[in-house]
Amino acid sequence: MSDLLRRLRARGWRVTAQRRVVAEVLDGEHVHLTADEVHARAVLRLPEISRATVYNTLGELVLLGEVAELSADGRAKRYDPNAHRPHQHLLCTGCGLIRDVRPTGDPLDGLPAGQRFGFTLSGAEVVYRGLCPSCG
Q1: How crowded is residue 8: how many other Cβ atoms within 10 Å of its Cβ?
Q2: Cβ(83)–Cβ(66) under 8 Å?
Q3: 78-80 and 88-92 as β-strands: parallel, antiparallel, unpaired?
Q4: CA 129 – CA 136 distance, rounded (Å)
Q5: Which runs of E-coded beta strand occur in 18-87?
Q6: How far apart (Å, rounded) are the C-alpha atoms in residues 105 and 52?
Q7: Nearest Cα to 57, choosing from 23, 9, 30, 33?
Q8: 53 vs 11, 19, 85, 101, CA distance in Å?
Q9: In angstroms, rounded to a whole number, what is the distance separating the alpha carbons of residues 23 and 20?
Q10: How many helices (H) and strands (E) does the chain have?
Q11: Residue 31: phi, psi to the nearest 5?
Q12: Contacts of 83 (CB under 8 A, 6+ apart)
């Protein structure tokens, strides 16, 4: 059983065949699929699953905080099932490959108090950009 599916069941999320397939497709490290990629992989497991069901399920998972929705460089939104593990992203500006990275230190420490404008910070999203070995 996938880690995501295990977490969803623990929360009492109603697991239908369609929802189970979407959760299974999203399982793993460094998974950053578009909704269309999730649908294409889900259809291989459950041919009758509709695009609307995939989009609706992804929306629910984002609202639950179990999947993070990423938008990088104007490309299609991608869905990251590692929303519960603190990490940042490494993005290839050539092909769009995204990898999870866990730099040392707190990214909130990089913003000096004088530039916080009175905000109480709760998080930071950092995207490191460059070229992957295939594109570089």
Answers
A1: 21
A2: yes
A3: unpaired
A4: 12
A5: 68-70, 78-80
A6: 40
A7: 23
A8: 20, 8, 26, 30
A9: 5
A10: 4, 5
A11: -90, 120
A12: 65, 66, 67, 68
Per the listing, tokens 């730099």 go with 103
* Residue 56 vs residues 20, 49, 61, 62, 118: alpha-carbon distances, Å: 13, 12, 9, 10, 37
What one-letter code names the amino acid at 1? M
Tokens 């109480």, residue? 120
Distance CA 59, CA 69 (A): 9
Q: Is the Cβ–Cβ distance between 101 and 87 less than 8 Å?
A: yes
Taking only the tens of pLDDT, the chain with its 136 residues reads 678 888 899 999 999 999 999 999 998 877 899 999 999 999 999 999 999 999 999 999 999 999 999 887 677 899 998 888 888 899 998 988 889 898 887 777 888 888 989 898 888 888 899 999 999 8
